[in-house]
Amino acid sequence: MTEVLSQDEIDQLLTTIAAGGEDAAVDSTHTTTQTRRRPNVKIYDFKRPDRFSKEQIRTVSIMHETFSRLASTSLSAQMRSLVHVHVASVDQLTYEEFIRSIPNPTTLAVINMEPLKGSAVLEIDPSITFSIIDRLFGGTGQSAKINRELTEIETAVLDGIVIYLLGNMKEAWSQVIELRARLSQIETNPQFAQIVPPTEMAILVTMETKVEGVEGMMNLCIPYLTIEPIIGKLSAQYWYSSVRRGFTTENLNILREKLNRISVSVVAEVGAMSVSTREVISLKVGDLIRFPNKKQSDPMILKVGNKPKFECRPGLVGRNVSVQITKKLEELYIEEFEELVNNGEQQ
To answer: What is the spatial order of strands in the sheet that 320-328 belongs to?
Structure first.
């Protein structure tokens, strides 16, 4: 059957013939035909189905970059030494691949991801684990590489560190879900941390961790079954819309209700003047203070939180001293008043 070439292919052949001769043209014809006939095939492994899209992986990465910054601060405060944590990679793999990739023994914290119905695993490299423990026990944290299981005392100390990290995780996940992560147990043998079937897909967040001169990895493995209920929220559209939700009428009403319960100081100011420390020390009961450029009929200034907001006049309500608001101050007047007060204090 005769092949019918398109105009673009004909132009390409003519250009090739002009540049390299007929042999090049024949090769080009063969190559062009092969390219046009080659199907666009994407290899798909049914044993390892992709459960997470690139956008969802990127969102998880952003969440845990926040977690890394918070963890760096909290660990530095706990150990009183410089700790640096940052996200190295975010990948998806089977849970069996994750278990096989970590050493034995190691530190595995099994985490209940409430309100999600499932668990996650935080794996801390042994070098980082024993460096943290050494620092908390008063050492330098520069201990030699140790390859053994944790003692009961070391496990109890590490429990507190993991609980601090879970608080950071709650804050990092707050844009997506009100996470109530809780430490279930700490294991040292990966085979005892089978929280999902081996073939179940999971997302793995690898974080490079440096404690003073000791470097290692922290790996957070979250199975798909655990994160599935909120998988739709792991998108840029939801992420940015959650920011915009802060400006809805409902949230503004909630903020207004909370602000209504906040106490602020309200001060009725008769006037302001500059006096020396000697004059303040010599003041006695019954002394009179004269305010320059201030008449008895002039209104007082009512300050709310140190900001002049109203003009008012003094009076009595029953036996209580009170003021009556007579005028709301404009912003320009407030600026002029503050400038006048500042100039008086400087003089």
So the answer is: 266-269, 300-304, 307-317, 320-328
